[in-house]
Amino acid sequence: MKLISTLILIILASTCNTPVEKKTDKKEAIPVQVNTQDGLERAYFSSGCFWCVEEIYESVVGVQEAISGYSGGTTENPTYRNHSDHAEANEIIYDPKIVSFKTLVDVYFASQNIEQVNGQGPDIGESYRSIIFYQNQEQKKIIEDKIAALTNDGFKVAAEVKAFEKFWIAEDYHQDYAKLHPNQGYIQGVSIPRWRKFASKMPDVIKPTVSH
Fold first, then answer.
1. Whether residue 49 lies in the annotated active site
2. pLDDT digits over 52-68, tens only?
3. Tens digits of per-residue pLDDT, 15-52?
4. Are 51 and 175 in contact (CB under 8 A)?
5. Mind listing the pLDDT tens digit for each residue in 174-207?
6. CB atoms within 10 A of CB 8
7. Which residue segments constitute the domains of the chain, with CATH numbers given?
8. What is the dihedral of CA 97, 100, 101, 106, to 10 degrees?
9. Which residues catalyse the reaction (predicted)?
10. How buried is residue 72: exposed, middle or buried, by Cβ count under 10 Å (0-12/13-18/19+)?
11. Exposed / middle / buried, residue 40 (Cβ in 10 Å: 0-12, 13-18, 19+)
12. Which of 43, 49, 143, 178 is catalytic?
């Protein structure tokens, strides 16, 4: 009996010292699908400074407008001075009959440093991290297929892939910033060179009226 009791104690002791795998109830977020309005759809991307991204997408054929804002976090009513865990993001309003979501994804990766973590160019930090948002499983597959192709080409893709939940529009003075301030130092030194580099990679998608 004493031997049995000793064995039981040894088993219990070894069990207590064995790391227990933690169970996580965290589930993949359910993406929010934004309704088509007047034949136009919306896509959401974070890729560094939203001034740069806005200018890039507004130059693409089929894109009606790009709006600067914040997404990817949990903070309610974010502002430029306090957007906490959100990243600078852009809402892309486009005509799917003219330009596909797949092309917008191609534009996304062609217009950034694919491997830069938490930033783009001189803009460093989580506020400038790359996030590509999906609203449904079809979009998610398009994104994953593109990332797989880039990975096969040897890139270490830094962009997060997240279910879209909410987009917060930034302050008025951020909208059309590059267009309204073409001679501003950042626009001249960062935005325009970034746009030119993108345009050289995908000249066929650029509106004929746009140039720098």
1. yes
2. 999 999 999 999 999 99
3. 333 333 333 335 678 999 999 999 999 999 999 999 99
4. no
5. 999 999 999 999 999 999 999 999 999 999 999 9
6. 10
7. 44-191 (3.30.1060.10)
8. -160
9. 49
10. buried
11. middle
12. 49
